[in-house]
Amino acid sequence: MIPATFEYHPASSVDEAIALLSQYGDDAKLLAGGHSLIPTMKLRLAQPAHLIDIGRIPGLSYIREEGNVVAVGALTTYATIERSEVLRRYFAVLPECASVIGDPQVRNRGTIGGSISHADPSADMPGAVRALKAEIRVRGPNGERTVAADDFFLGTFTTALEPGEMVTEIRFPLPPARTGSAYTKLANKASHYAVAGCAAVVTLGADGACTAASVVITGAGTMPTRASAVEAALMGKQLDEATVAEAASHAAEGLELMEDIHGSKQYRAQMAAVMARRAILKAAERARG
Amino acid sequence: MGIAALVGTPIKRREDPRLITGQATYVDDLKLPGMLYMAVLRSPYGHARIRSINTEAAKQAPGVVAVYTAQDLKGVVGNIPVAAPLPPHITNGMGRRGPLAEGKVRFYGDPVAVVIAESRYGARDALDLIEVDYEPLPAVVDPEKAAQPDAPLLYEEFGTNVAASVRPPTDEIDRVFAETQANGGIVVRQRMVNQRLAPSPMETRGVVAEFRKADRTLTIWSSSQIPHLLRNYLAEQLGLPQHQVRVIVPEVGGGFGCKLNIYPEEALAAFAAMKTGHPVKWIEDRSENLAVTIHGRDQINYVEVAATRDGKITGLKVHVVSDLGAYLQFFTDVIAIAFTLPMICGCYDIPVAYGSCDIVFTNKAPTDAYRGAGRPEAAYIAERAVDLVAHALGKDPAEVRMINFVKPEQFPHKMATGTVYDSGNYQLALEKAMQLIGYQQLRAEQAQKRAQGKLMGIGISSYVEICGIGPKGLTPFGLYESARVRVDQSGDVLIYTGASPHGQGEETTFAQIAADEFGIPIERVLVLHGDTDSTPEGRGTYGSRTTAVGGTAVYNAVQKLKEKMKQIAAHMLEASPADVTLEDGKFSVAGAPQKAVTFAEVAAAANFSNTLPPGIEPGLETTVFFEPEACTFPFGTHICVVEIDKDTGEVHLRRYVAVDDCGRQLNPLLVAGQIHGGIVQGVGQALFEGVVYDENGQLLTSTFMDYAMPLASELPPFELDHTVTPTPYNPLGVKGVGEAGTIAATPAVAGAVADALGLPHVDIPFTPERIWRIIQQQQAQPQA
Ligand SMILES: Cc1cc2nc3c(=O)[nH]c(=O)nc-3n(C[C@H](O)[C@H](O)[C@H](O)COP(=O)(O)OP(=O)(O)OC[C@H]3O[C@@H](n4cnc5c(N)ncnc54)[C@H](O)[C@@H]3O)c2cc1C
């Protein structure tokens, strides 16, 4: 479990990191918490010749309220997210999601920016980021741009990041009143990544009927996938058990299902529905306050 | 009042401070001047012919000192040692191998070449430069398919993959089955899979080899359970006299049987050290460990059990298919035959038992002894068989156990398998466990939950195992243990044991034995092990034998020294040795307690020697070998409760009670530790673990991302109790406890899950999808 030879470049600023990325191109990789990249390198599945360490760049780890947005720096660790009062107040799904990732060591090192950039289909955080309809702030050689989470994830380990770009911030719009969110996952018993997981965000009207629903499935498919059919089935309805179960049964629609020794396609499809039902019920309960 | 006895008290392990403060030395901590590093190139195929190997580019790589293939070892390094080669084929070479593959690779990870380089990194990088031209061959990974006539052959020249078959005549068992049925009884049949497991010790394997050319002495540091056997066999493999090989076993971070082996890498590192004149280190990485260190279990069992309507078992017929993997390691071929078949009756007085076995080569890693080594499979067979009978008759599984137990007054008892059990009280352990867990209340709760459509199950495992090997003749070489005990001139006691503790805590328990017998504080006793130069002979630690055999050797050695010290004390006290007693570290004359000399004074006299009486040799030192006359049979009952999530198929272990009887307990804290760890591994087999290969022999569980180890967060607190039934076969009365938890736990959880689902049997491991599918089926076709 020894990685191939690489050159290590500690970057002291985002600009420097981007300059290094431009310089080394395809031979380079950014290193954040290292908890996806290093294992991959040790198995020699990735052999970057240059490693640009962004983990020491100051000022990229924060959770800030900025008007009607909460901004989270790309280097913010799961542990920080898990303990954030601000996040807990507005987006229960984020600390909840962070708390079921790996073990304390992983949560102390792994970053939200690293997780979404890596775009592992079995990872948890991409689901929460997408369900909350976050905006992802990206910096590259041509300056800064913002990508909607729905447009960010393109496939297995594939994102909208262009060569030379890095994620600097994830911006979460504050939710309307009576919004609740939750994350549930069925963990793979070996890796504890998601065999199937669901991040759900629901908003209820004064009468208790669902006025907005955002449901994203992790683990079961080849990428974190919006469960549009589930969302549609929730809209305008009272979120009782039967309604939610019926809606959740559409969770696998539109998923490009994965399959491995921890779960067949059929099982993953069913588990997506189970996780969706549980996450939506929990989110609705939180929305009711 | 005298010093409180130490034996029987829960004192903390003396080895722990150095282990938990990072001050212990493991193989990988060793750095020798001029040391080189070895990396091993391994087969990416399950089965392939090697057309050619080109090592030129690797040899040119920076820092590379040498690259070796099987060609280089020819005539220099012998085959990997096998303890007990079985006829007809293994005795003729089937399944034997040199340290590097020749002509063919037969499993994923099969070693093909090694690189010796100045750094570990350089060695690893150079592996990528070796070109091997493989011709992939059809592989066979299922032992039953491998036994078919048209299967791809691992060893073409033998015309079969079946290395040996044991098939006694079936007349008697057939008669019993027919009679039982004629009398209205039942015969239940079940195929069971006991899946392949990866032992996965926290410390992987590792070796450092150093060869001094001047005096041709080879020193091997190895993470091993068997320093002496390693020395003896490695010497033979390398053509060196035993005395020119010294094996040092430093701290070992777990073995579980997988380090009871002589592996290719030990000979390879030694060969490289001898060729290059430099010390050579090899440290196994985790993926190598999961791929090439022996696996355990991997049996398919066909179980047929006959019983009367009252639940009395009349006969048991078992056929075992044992998957050997691609090659033989130390005990690969005999695990099923020598350890499973003799124990299939469990604790039950079954009048007629029949066992047959096929041992079969497949394109997978070799199997061998993994914690329990054949006995977990036997306990699984016996416990599942009793549960099958209970299920078929609609009886409580506890009741069927009670009906069939060997009774306390029947010991020593010869089982239908021919195995003679030493002592036991199986009812007592079961009753105690039932009481502790509140069995009747749980059954009531279960009935309530069932009515609500919830799945809750209770599983019982009344296991018995065979320990304390071994008596003469049971194995190809005597499995005695040695102890050298020395009292130095300051009165400190040094114990050199031939056992090789690697986590079990004998540095503590052996010291307890000696401290009590001498009546001195434990601080004055030191237990040393793991160096064939300081303890010239020994057999090592495995099979839950170390306290029963090695502890007894210590005890006997101490008795001998005590006798000598009494003679010296008698001389000093001008009394007759017969009148001298040793108590609380003082030798005194019976009836005149003021006339006394201390333990230290006698030790000084013995070592200084000037004042010794004529006829008494100077010094206080003795070496004792203990070879038990018979095996010991620890037993107990474990009961657990599971709940199943109907939506996901996940099994939650809710409670776990263990009542174990390992004979006399020298240190209850250490016993509890062994039971805890054992249960975790047994539960791991039932719920999580499993080595998986695809049809081509590709390993799909090559990292912990895919091989599921049990986590503390998935386990309930264990509730432990015990009974004490000493063995008559050693003076300490101890039976062994190292494997008990592992042996007991798997069938307990298996019973609970089958019970929850209302089924006679479900194959382990209970992965969520497997259970979910069963629930789906049950919901699709509701039971009549
Ligand atoms: C034992 C273990 C268990 C785990 N369990 C889970 C789990 O249960 N659930 C789960 O979701 N994850 C799990 N993980 C993965 C963990 O969440 C990773 O930390 C995370 O996926 C990646 O974050 P990182 O900061 O470590 O990124 P790194 O590993 O440093 O980088 C990952 C990739 O993203 C790129 N990258 C990093 N930061 C940026 C950036 N700002 N902009 C652009 N590209 C960037 C890197 O170049 C690299 O390609 C586990 C990891 C381990 C080791």
Automatic annotation (TrEMBL), chain A:
It holds the Pfam family CO_deh_flav_C. It comes from the Bacteria. One of its GO terms (molecular function) is FAD binding. SUPFAM superfamilies: CO dehydrogenase flavoprotein C-terminal domain-like, FAD-binding/transporter-associated domain-like. Keywords: FAD, Flavoprotein, Oxidoreductase. InterPro entries: CO_DH_flav_C, CO_DH_flav_C_dom_sf, Diverse_Substr_Oxidored, FAD-bd_PCMH, FAD-bd_PCMH-like_sf, FAD-bd_PCMH_sub1, FAD-bd_PCMH_sub2, Mopterin_DH_FAD-bd. Residues 1-177 form the FAD-binding PCMH-type domain. This is Carbon monoxide dehydrogenase.
From TrEMBL, chain B:
Its cofactor is Mo-molybdopterin cytosine dinucleotide. GO terms for molecular function: iron ion binding; oxidoreductase activity. Residues 21-138 form the Aldehyde oxidase/xanthine dehydrogenase a/b hammerhead domain. Keywords: Molybdenum, Oxidoreductase. InterPro entries: Ald_Oxase/Xan_DH_a/b (IPR000674), Ald_Oxase/Xan_DH_a/b_sf (IPR036856), Ald_Oxase/xanthine_DH-like (IPR016208), AldOxase/xan_DH_MoCoBD1 (IPR008274), AldOxase/xan_DH_MoCoBD2 (IPR046867), AldOxase/xan_DH_Mopterin-bd_sf (IPR037165). It comes from the Bacteria. SUPFAM superfamilies: CO dehydrogenase molybdoprotein N-domain-like (SSF54665), Molybdenum cofactor-binding domain (SSF56003). Signal peptide: none annotated. This is Carbon monoxide dehydrogenase.
